Amino acid sequence: MTLGKPQVSQTRSFMTVSLIELWERFGFYGMQALIVYFMVQRLGFEDSRANLVWSACAALIYVSPAIGGWVGDKILGTKRTMLIGAAILSLGYALMTVPTENTWFLFSALGVIVVGNGLFKPNAGNLVRKIYDGDDSKIDSAFTIYYMAVNVGSTFSMLLTPWIKDYVNATYGNEFGWHAAFAVCCVGLLVGLANYMMMRHTLDAYGSEPDSRPVEMKKLAAVLGLAALSVVASAFILEYEDVARVFVYGAGICVLAIFAHLIRTSEVSERAGLIAALVLTVQTVFFFIFYQQMSTSLALFALRNVDWDFQMFGAHLWTWSPAQFQALNPIWIMLLSPVLAWVYATAGRNNKDLSIAAKFALGFAVVAAGFFIYGIAGEFAVNGKTSSWVMIGGYGAYSLGELLVSGLGLAMIARYVPERMGGFMMGAYFVASGISQYLGGVVANFASVPQGLTDPLQTLPIYTSLFNKLGMAALVCTFIALAVLPLMRRLTDTHHSHNGNNNNLLAEAN
User: Fold this and answer.
1) CA gap 485, 159 in Å, rounded
2) What percent of the chain has pLDDT over 90?
3) Structural domains for the chain
4) CA 118, 156, 16, 147 torsion: positive or negative?
5) Keywords of this protein's UniProt record, alphabetized (predicted)?
C-alpha cells in the first residue's frame, strides 16, 4: 500500500529496508554460529539436548512470522511492527550477554528472539514488496539484492562472533567471551535501528493501512502483552522436549489439514496447482532436514573432527575457529547466485529451462554429493581430523542445493497457488519449513557424541556414518523427485491449461 506520493526515489527507500535487514541478519547469524557450541561447551548440555533445543527454537522462528505479518498488516502497521520486532530482537541478544548458566534464562532469551523475529521478518519483506508494488521487472532484482544483503550480514557476523569469543576468552582467561560475542549481535541491531531512524523519512510513502493512522495505545499494549506471553510459551516449549515434540507434530497435522481442506474446497481448475504445490512443499520439508545439519551435526563435526588450519601444498594459509566454517554457506550463496541466475536466464532464452520440479531433483542430488564428501573424507583423515578443504567442498555442494530447492520454494507458491490463497499458503509453507527444522535436530541426534568422549578417532565414525546415511537419504529424495516428474508435468500442464482458458474467457468478456 502506498500512503502518499513518494518524495524520494524507490532505490533510497529500498536501501533503508535492506540496511536494517542486513544488520538484523548480522545479529541473528552471529548468534546462530555459536548457540549450539554455547550449550555444549559453556552450559554442559549433551549433544542431543543442544541439537533439539536449537532445532525447536528454529522451528518457532519459522512459524512466528505467520503471526507477525498479520499484526503488521491489520493492527499496528508494517513499519511500526518491523521496528518493534527489531527492538525486541536487540533485547533478546542483550539478555544473552548476561553471564549466567541458568537454562531457563537462556530459554527466555531465545523466546524473546523468537518473538522479535516473528514481528520483524515478514514486515521487512512486505515493505520491499510495497516499494515496488506493480513493477514486476524491478521486484525480482530488488529481492535478489535483498537476499544478497542477508548473506553479507550473515557472512561477517559468522566470521566475527567466533573470533571475538575466542579472543576474549584467551585474553582474559574466563568464559565471558561467549557473552561478549552475543553483545556484538545486540550492537548490530542497535546500529541497524539507529541507521533506520536517520533514513526513516524515505519510507513515509509506504506501509500498510494502520501506518497512516496514529498508533492506538490499546492495540499496542495488547500486542506487547501477547508478545510477553509468547516469550513465556516459547521458553516453556524449549525447556521441555515432550512439549516441543507435541507442538511441532501438531503443527504438521494442521498444515496437512490446511492443504487437504484447500484442495477439497477449491475450484476444479485450481486443484492441479494446489496438488503440485503440496508435492513440492513435502520435498522442501525434506530439504530443510538436511539444511538444519549446518548448525547442529556439521557444527559439532567441525569442532571435533576438522583440522582448523587451511593448508596448501604443505604451507599454512590461515586458521579458522570451528564456528566460522558456517560462514562458508553465505559465501558460497553469494558466489553461486549470479552464476545460477545467468544459467537460468540463458536457458530461458533458448527454451531449455528446467521446471521447478526438475530443479528440486537436481538440488537433492547436489546435497547428496555434499554429504558424501563429508562421509568419504573420513577415509583420508589424519588422527581423526579431516582437512578444512573438505568443509569448503561440502558446503559448496550444500549451498548449490539450497539455491535449487529452498531458493525456489516461494516462487513455487506464487506459481501454483491461486492469488486469493497466497498469504494463507505462504504461512503454511513457513510452518512446514519450521517443522522440518525440528526434524533436522532429531536426525542430527543420530550423531550425538556421549559426554566425555573427546578422542577424534572415536568421534569420527559417529559423524561419517550419519553423513553417509544422509547422502543416501538425499539420493532417495532425488529418485523420488525424478519419479514424480511425469505427475508434476501433467499437473503443471493442467494448471496452465485452466489458467489459459480462464484468461481467454476474461479477454472475451472484456
Assistant:
1) 40
2) 38
3) 8-239 (1.20.1250.20)
4) negative
5) Cell membrane, Membrane, Peptide transport, Protein transport, Transmembrane, Transmembrane helix, Transport
